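Quick log. Single chain, no ligands specified.
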Amino acid sequence: MQSPVGLNTPSLRRLEDLAWKSCGGYMTGSARRTRRPGFTLIELLVVIAVIAILVALLLPAVQQMREGARRIQCTNNLKNLGVALASYDTTHRLFPPSFVRQPDGSPPPPPIPYSSLRYRGHWTGYHLLLPFIDQRPLYAKYDFNGTWLSTMQSADDHRSWPLNQTKIPILNCPSAPHAGIIGGDIAGDPHWMAGAPADYSFSHGADAIRALAGEDAGCTPGLLHYWENYPKHTRGVFGYNSNCRRVDIRDGQTNTLLLGEKAGGLLTYSGWNSSLPTLKVEYPWAMAAVEYLAATGDQATPNSAWVAGPYAVTSDLQLPHCPDSSLVNAEPFPMNPVPRILAKTSDERPLYSWQSPHVAGANFLFCDGRVKYISQHVNQGVMMALSTVAGSEPVGSTDF
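-> predicted structure:
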């Protein structure tokens, strides 16, 4: 009996075969109806290899974009600090000193029994800038009749210690490799030098930075050079008890540095003898101990570091020369000193150079409020000229 369409079963199968062949199919039986598209193992491996190559090509670009964003944030930090310094200048008609110091010969009791601390400073410029960088509540907690560590009467008054550990985001470059608050607790008590890091330092110009000249060098001990006693052609905008006004900036505000990057966590210092630890170097914003270094612990203490004050110079005198020696003896300080891991040495001067976590240069804030990225390969004479307020050096915009 014929099918309803007039075709028997074999004829229907032949038509199916012809239809499959016209579509490029050559399978028979039930496999014709269950065929599924898919990848072979070789095709899958090729796809994975292509994806891996694309990731390898894109990852550096992504990292570069992230670093670019961090560098922009670093630039914005410096611009905001420029606004704060301009506001301070508008209020007080001068820039703040980088350090406020008591007169030599009448120091308050030292916070610990170590004789050289009799010449420590009272406050840093960042303490004075707190109301201008949205930190007025922190500013109000300090007793400015005392020092950054204690009162004038009692070295056991530690109320300011936790205040010094307050992290201030505007003072940190997002590219800097900080581990946290510098100098964590030791046996339950904070180290007396513990503090929050800062990556931007005050420009002290191109002159000697020695606070303690040293009796062994035949020099009068103590700080001999307050800012007003520094030679005008070598001093910067900031210094010990500085009172720089805009009228004092004779070299032009577009050619004179205010602040620059001196980021912590980049250099490693091993001290001057084998009994001292090898630690990263940090620059707490509240550390007013001027030319004084301290290790806040050892390798076993979390977040320990060598600490120094937040200021930088472009040249310095090497002892045994006294601070009032001729600058013929001065040694220029290049940006981003190498090696970054310092051996056992008494020469800690690389710690007072400009340092940046960015590639081959650093950001700097100028007196006119602009921020400029300067190459670390810039002529050192140009950098020294930019760091001074009245050196009368011929520096053009194309020199840096």
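Residues 1-7, 211-217 have pLDDT under 50 and may be disordered.
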